[in-house]
Amino acid sequence: MGGTQIQAHEAVSRCIAVLDVGTTAVKACLFSPSLELLACSVQEYALRTQGERVEADAAQYKAAARAGLADALSQAPGCIPAAVSITTQGETLTLADRSGEPLRPFLVWLDSRAENEAQALRSVLDNETFYKTTGLPEVTGALPLAKLLWLRKHEPDTFVRAHKLLLLEDYLLHWLTGRFVSEKSLQTSTGWFDLHSDGLWHSGLAAAGASAELLPELLECGAPAGSLLPGPAAELGLPPNIPVVAGAMDQTAAALAAGCTRPGTVTETTGTALVMAACTDAPMFRSGHHVTVYRHALPGKYLYLPIGNTAGMALRWFRDEFCRDLPAGAAGYAALDALVQSVPCGCDGLAFLPFLSGSVDPDACPEARAAFFGARLSTTRAHFARSVMESVAFLLRDFFGMLNALGCPADTVYSLGGGARSAVWQQIKADACGRTFRVPVCSEATAMGAALLAGWGSGLIAPGVFPCRGESAVYLPDNARAPAYDTAYSLYKKLYAAVKPLYNAF
């Protein structure tokens, strides 16, 4: 926990403050009106877990925001915030009273307690209709729509006392402005947002026993949400009455910052999970396997979101369990990079399936498990490490195929997340997918997307103008390696097909 010192700059009279509220940490960032990152502070917090339940207290989010902004402001003397915005994880929600105070802890997006309620909703909501309305593949126990029904059934006293059901960004916006408002990219993660009407899906809400009155007013991403109240301004060390601007959900904000604003532009985020975002003006809702579709931060645009549950998490799992002699943090990953470079493409026939927590795309298989195949006496730890990296590249290759089948080109690819910091992994992706991968200069793309929206909404940046964004690295595919990767990819696909029937035995 603590600050990340940004290289010193000349005094800046005005800047944009952003709270990027993730699953286990808040990043408090300051940006200039040209979207130069001036300061960033990371403040971690713990979640409460018990079985399938994952909760967090509102006080944790507030405390991390206060500490983070205090640290960030100390890193940028002379920087005076003139606007503030928020970006958060999707799906995390609570019930609040008329003053905006939570009546219970937040149900974090990882919480899957509502599986019985999800099953009940699936019995009354046709799955194809649900998908084509909301863009979400199916009703699951992690979905806010199912959690809403769980709260109504299991905590009726709290439910009847509730004035509003708030997602995490909604709660923080109310804290800052006193207004019950939300934004549309965040609401697309709920199961009660209609992509076609660009508003609430009343039939979905009714199935969960709720009405639109329970939800906050919907704003466009980048719309002014209100003025910063004196109380929270004093808590956060910000000037009172500056504009608070509605942000966007984390994946959407990152895609916006990276320039994923037109068909043909794609982002891939190799973080805990692997998420690809591809912009489209007219999404296709194909029968069979359903690709997640989100509402973009820009009106009239949408994002296809193929998802792999474990990517960076798979490499961390390998490091933690099988490389305990390596140092922690960045030094440990650098050591893994060095190991991986000693092994040829295709890992001498070793393959890995990266499904440590089921498969979402390209094949919806919650029962999927990870597997190594092809080890011999000559196989080393370096082979295993490289096979993990290559498996994520092959998952990306599958995602490109999915987008192609949807008529969505991928002409320009931007890499985000922790995986983008590994030159070795980036080159593996480029070679295995036969595409050029570009890494933006700013490593905090999610916060930058929220800063851009704050700039537009406050007038610090002209609406629709994208300040110049550079690239820190570009990775071109080496065509000489294509045959080796084609062979390795074929083995990867055959391995999955061969072991999939065994998953039902678990």
From TrEMBL:
<comment type="similarity">
    <text>Belongs to the FGGY kinase family.</text>
</comment>
<dbReference type="InterPro" id="IPR018484">
    <property type="entry name" value="FGGY_N"/>
</dbReference>
<feature type="domain" description="Carbohydrate kinase FGGY N-terminal">
    <location>
        <begin position="16"/>
        <end position="256"/>
    </location>
</feature>
<keyword id="KW-0418">Kinase</keyword>
<dbReference type="Pfam" id="PF02782">
    <property type="entry name" value="FGGY_C"/>
</dbReference>
<dbReference type="InterPro" id="IPR043129">
    <property type="entry name" value="ATPase_NBD"/>
</dbReference>
<keyword id="KW-0808">Transferase</keyword>
<dbReference type="GO" id="GO:0005975">
    <property type="term" value="P:carbohydrate metabolic process"/>
</dbReference>
<protein>
    <recommendedName>
        <fullName>Xylulokinase</fullName>
    </recommendedName>
</protein>
<feature type="domain" description="Carbohydrate kinase FGGY C-terminal">
    <location>
        <begin position="271"/>
        <end position="456"/>
    </location>
</feature>
<dbReference type="InterPro" id="IPR050406">
    <property type="entry name" value="FGGY_Carb_Kinase"/>
</dbReference>
<dbReference type="Pfam" id="PF00370">
    <property type="entry name" value="FGGY_N"/>
</dbReference>
<dbReference type="InterPro" id="IPR000577">
    <property type="entry name" value="Carb_kinase_FGGY"/>
</dbReference>
<dbReference type="InterPro" id="IPR018485">
    <property type="entry name" value="FGGY_C"/>
</dbReference>
<dbReference type="GO" id="GO:0016301">
    <property type="term" value="F:kinase activity"/>
</dbReference>
